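Task: complex structure prediction.
Instruction: return C-alpha cells for all chains below.
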Amino acid sequence: QVQLQESGPGLVKSSETLSLTCTVSGGSVSSGSYYWSWIRQPPGKGLEWIGYIYYRGSTNYNPSLKSRVTISVDTSKNQFSLKLSSVTAVDTAVYYCARVEYHHAFDLWGQGTMVTVSS
Amino acid sequence: QSVLTQPPSASGTPGQRVTISCSGSSSNIGSNTVNWYQQLPGTAPKLLIYNNNQRPSGVPDRFSGSKSGTSASLAISGLQSEDEADYYCAAWDDSLNGPVFGGGTKLTVL
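Output:
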C-alpha cells in the first residue's frame, strides 16, 4: 500500500531555512489523481495547512506562509519537498506530508517529523 | 484562532452516542464539503469522514457525518474506549483558496 515518510533535520536555527522531504512508496507521486501537501501542528495545538503541489509542478500555498514557503516535486525520486525560510520559534511543530484526494481530503498521511527552531 | 469553530472538549460513556459540531461560514462549509480527521494520541491524523458523510474503507459505520448550511457535525455511536482522540473538521475555503481546519475537539471516554 502507499506510504509517505518525512525526512529532514529535527533542529533548525532561527533565521535559517527548514528543509523537509516526503518520500512516496508503494505508489507514484506522478499519479494525476492526487495533489501532495504539507501540514504542520505546533506542540499541543491544531493543524495548519502549509501548501500543496501537483506532479506537474503547480502549487498553492497558505497566504499566511506564502512569502516563506516553497514546495517542489521530484518525480524521478518519487519525492516532494518543503522549504520554509527565515524560521522562528513559532515554526516549531510536527510537520506532516499528506496526499490530497478529489474532495480536498487528506486521505493518507506520513507519520510526521518534529522540527524545533532554536535560537 | 481557527477559521472553523469546534468545542474544545466532549465526553461520553461507553455505548453512548456523542456529537461534535463544526461551525464555519459561507466561504467554507457553506459552499464546500466537510472532512473529519481522528488523531489518536501521539499519532498522525487519519481521515475519518470525507465529502460530508462518506467513510473511507475500514472506518466503522459507528462514525457518521452531516452538514447543514454553514455547520457540520460528526456523530459517534456505540462509543468505545479506543475512540478517545482529538477530532478535527476541515473544509476548503474559497477566500483562502485552500483548506481550513477547526481547532480540534478532545473526546474523552469516561
